[in-house]
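Re: your question about Xyloglucan endotransglucosylase/hydrolase

S., sorry for the slow reply, the queue was backed up all week. Below is exactly what I fed in.
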Amino acid sequence: MAASSSLRVSALLLVMSIVGSLSMVVSAGNFYQDMDITWGDGRANILDNGDLLTLSLDKSSGSGFQSKNQYLFGKFDMQLKLVPGNSAGTVTTYYLSSQGSTHDEIDMEFLGNLSGDPYILHTNVFSQGKGNREQQFHLWFDPTADFHTYSILWNPLSIIFSVDGIPIRQFKNIEESNGVPYPQNQAMRVHASLWAAEDWATRGGLVKTDWTKAPFTATYKNFGANACISWSNGACASSTSGSNSNSWLSEQLDYSTQGQMKWVQNNYMIYNYCTDTKRFPQGLPQECSMS
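Result:
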């Protein structure tokens, strides 16, 4: 208990120091201003004066983009409309990542399906190059019929994944003193991609991609970042598309949102690494008994 309290105090002090360094407000929400297309040879396109960004996948290549800025903590929102119809073998992603072999990463990956079957939302957290913290969910709506908002809150206290404002997963910063690192020292960019993974994405690779349905297309809009932009000199500046730009630094789940998360996990979670004793026969990862 003492170690956990000490860690929380340290995290709160870090929050206070970051709040003190926030100095600049930058608008967000236009893909021309916020993102660079990084690969795809014309398969990624910014449309409607920067309001929409589409990624496409065919048998030759997928496509992707990343944020112009890199961030150290923030709340990131993106609206997505996923590949409709038979999207088996495709993976649409929205995630944060640093670089290098000891990188940090916070993942949302949407695993394609046969027509009529549900998409799988695959989440993972990497810290200092170590991942293997997967949780997977079905969604309570058709993510191909309309846009829905997918959010990642990353602050010194925890990482919270949300869908349409409903939290589905929390990864707390309570493990550092016990040898499980938390992503808090490496700046990360926002990334997104659409790529082929028929060897594992749909029913473990049993269902292959029907390339006669290509090109497959996913659409992104309304990116927003209330976040700390990390500059090369170590300085930090606020990037915000709304008011109350600093509230995310100490945001946590309250009683109501904890109940929402429990509802999602009870009804829509289909995999949790913290219950997979076959995968971890020597014992579950240490953080599983501490969250």
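The chain is about 15% helix and 40% strand. Residues 31-233+249-282 form a domain with the Jelly Rolls fold (CATH 2.60.120.200).

Happy to talk it through on Thursday.
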